[in-house]
Amino acid sequence: MKSVNFLLAFVLLALASSLASAYDPSPLQDFCVGINDIKTGIFVNGKFCKDPKLATPDDFFFKGLNIPGNTNNLVGSNVTIVNVDQFPGLNTLGISMVRIDYAPNGGENPPHIHPRASEILFVQEGTLYVGFVTSNQNNNTLFSKILYPGEVFVFPIGLIHFQVNLGKTDAVAFAALGSQDPGVITIANAVFGSNPPINPDVLARAFQLDVRVVKDLQKNFVLLALASSLASAFDPSPLQDFCVAINDIKTGIFVNGKFCKDPKLATPDDFFFKGLNIPGNINNPVGSNVTTVNVDQIPGLNTLGVSLVRIDYAPNGGQNPPHTHPRATEILFVQEGTLYVGFVTSNQNNNTLFSKILYPGDVFVFPIGLIHFQVNIGKTDAVAFAGLGSQNPGVITIANTVFGSNPPINPDVLARAFQLDVKVVKDLQKKF
């Protein structure tokens, strides 16, 4: 009997381990900058780690996402990828970003999947027809939508999806993906352009085509490197195509996060949001506004482990003040303006500040749980977009939380912690 119990415990432990590492590994330190020289690194799942003492702000920085990609190709699109290969500081942080450019009149990011990530896509310019197809168990249903500037759509992990430019002008979209390396499988290329090729008879039967047609297709296809999608290192791994959030528990099944709508009742609008092109109101004490697109705004994000924000900053010092996201890493892209940004490491790494000045097209990463900030140092408005690796990353604004808690923290505690006079602490508590 003991041996049976031991075996059962071992099996459960193995299952738990496999579930825990379904996607990117959860970081066990502030960050793990990717390097290729194994002699100076410590092995982890993904990339070897640079010694944290040798890390620099440039490890968390990328520039050029404002530069259009070349769409002069067979599919009429170009994906500029910002993953761990371009951005070593992303290692173990479970998120990445892409810019997608589409040629006019049908330029497309052809049907593909991301095996390790869900994707949340935001249209900056143009008109896109987008969609994803559910799995066989959900009758291969197409969920599609026409998107205009400022609108957002979600593609669940592992499902075939696409985008097509319906307009007569160029289109541009940005997407965040919940893996440092989400992977991409372009369906046509993978099926008809594999190396070595799949037996033509197999494909002829599978696609109900003449063998000669299959052979012609195999001659025509070459492997293309096109990417775009998102998943999560920290939110629960989805066990179905999607799990649309609902508030009525009588018609749902309990999961970590939100109850699930019956998949048969899901609609394209469950994966859709509009308005991210609308500036937020920055007339407030900190001079900034965060427009949040998480599971509360897009119920289809439930269990998919990603969300998106737009941040508007007032000129001359408008800031997103020091804060943390307890459940997500953040990858931020500057669209307009000049931002001074930074994060501070934990005590074990001597509370080191990693900071950088960002210009349009620049990207910066804020590791999960670390205090970070952004400040507009320009004389005009600034705008940034950020992807976060959780459907509900949470936010803890440091000053508000410490000095504005309800009920308030004992002033003597804060006076000693911050080495302030008790009267100063009490004044701060009145303000927050």
From TrEMBL:
Subcellular localization(s) per the UniProt record: Secreted, Extracellular space, Apoplast
Signal sequence residues: 1-22
InterPro entries: Cupin_1 (IPR006045), Germin (IPR001929), Germin_Mn-BS (IPR019780), RmlC-like_jellyroll (IPR014710), RmlC_Cupin_sf (IPR011051)
Binding annotation for Mn(2+): H323, H325, E330, H372
GO cellular component terms given for this protein: apoplast
Entry keyword annotation includes Manganese: yes
Protein name: Cupin type-1 domain-containing protein
